[in-house]
Amino acid sequence: MGAAVKTKAKVVVVMPAYNAAKTLRMTYDDLPHHLVDRVIVVDDGSKDDTVRVARELGLRIFAHDRNYGYGANQKTCYREALKAGADIIVMVHPDYQYDPTLLPQVIAPIERGEADVVLGSRLLGGQPMKGGMPWWKYVANRFLTRCENSTFGLRLAEYHTGYRAYTRDALESVNLETNSDNFIFDQEIMAQFVEVGSRVAEVPVPTRYFPQASSASFVQSSVYGLSILWLLFRYILHRTGVRRSRQFQSLRRRYADMVHA
Question: What is the mean pLDDT of residues 242-256?
Fold first, then answer.
């Protein structure tokens, strides 16, 4: 008998968009299209021409009727990517802050079977402040990352990145709908992945800071930081059994418990 033919994994890029008309085309053009099977844009109630540009590019578009939030945008992104039959789902922000050409490096640990979740890290072997990252964001990033590493038992360079890749199995194992519709979604899904035992890897990705790239204000970043600390506290309560949370339970484990109940 001959050796089994290894089929190519279906790669779907999702772009959570909000007022990205000026940078969407640049982001799309720089994608390594020979590796990408489909690009999905979810517009979260943009007030500019994001939807028009996406249509001109011939992309699959899902438009929210109003601005629901970054987390709600991602929920739609992943839901539609899974419906499209994706094996690997890559989130690329359409603001051109992260380099789309690095997609092969981002998905490589998944393709090698070494990871279920890959984070594109600005801080892994790089100097983000030279790239334009404000000093206060850098300091806050380092502090929060230490707290997260301590809580999750990992040794990552950072958790706060908009360049991520997930396997289908990883996304189907966690309860996305219980997560926030706001920016804390990124950290909630990481807590869920840690709880279900997903393998996490990271690769270095430089970033660009310029007027068209989306960036949270100091006040927004402060609220985000406090939200992360509250999430970590809730996760500790869950892990120690003081207060178990449905949000952090594996969907597959819950289904198995129901079947055998």
Answer: 79
pLDDT score, position 212: 53
Residue 5 in any domain: the answer is no
Q: Which tokens hold the place of 7?
A: 């089929």
Spatial distance between the Cα atoms of 156 and 154, rounded to a whole number of angstroms: 6
- Count how many domains the chain has: 1
> Residue 17's domain spans which residues?
11-260
pTM of the shown model: 0.89
DSSP collapsed to 3 states, 109-155: HHHCCCCCEEEEECCCCCCCCCCCCCHHHHHHHHHHHHHHHHHHCCC
Is 1 among the domain residues?
Answer: no
> Are the CB atoms for 109 and 118 separated by under 8 Å?
yes
Domain CATH code at residue 94: 3.90.550.10
